[in-house]
Design brief:
With 116 residues, this protein is mainly alpha-helical. The protein has one domain. The protein is built from 5 helices and 2 strands. Strands 1-2 form a two-stranded antiparallel sheet. The relative contact order is 0.19.
Length: 116
């Protein structure tokens, strides 16, 4: 089973001439939290959303790209963020983050029963 099977649609992001796919699953969230020191699962603050630290952008980009490229390093992902593209990257990260927080749609199209 792939990491995307029970997760919402990944978000496409083009940097330069290469298309990347952002996806936040539980492992990606953990990785971003470990790197950034921000409790991302608890929710991003308004300040984080409106004026993110570069380190948060880099951490979330790296974490969101991990499933696409398991050999990607934090350093290489960090180098993708520049003064000219950070806002576009951040907007795509936020779209992917919102997508991961929506209820999952099972592969068979049937709703998941509630947990009692």
């Amino acid at each position: 089973m792939s990491r995307t099977s029970s997760i919402q649609s990944p978000v496409k992001l083009t940097i330069g001439d290469k298309e990347h796919t952002l996806l936040f699953d539980f492992q990606a969230i953990k990785e971003a939290e470990d790197i950034s020191g921000v409790s991302i699962l608890a929710g991003l603050s308004r300040r984080d959303v409106n004026a993110p630290r570069i380190s948060l952008i880099q951490a979330m980009l790296y974490a969101g790209l991990m499933y696409q490229d398991p050999k990607l390093t934090f350093e290489k992902a960090s180098q993708l963020v520049t003064l000219h593209n950070w806002q576009e990257i951040w907007n795509k990260i936020l779209l992917a983050w919102v997508a991961c927080m929506e209820p999952a749609k099972p592969e068979d199209g049937k709703a998941n029963p509630p947990i009692a």
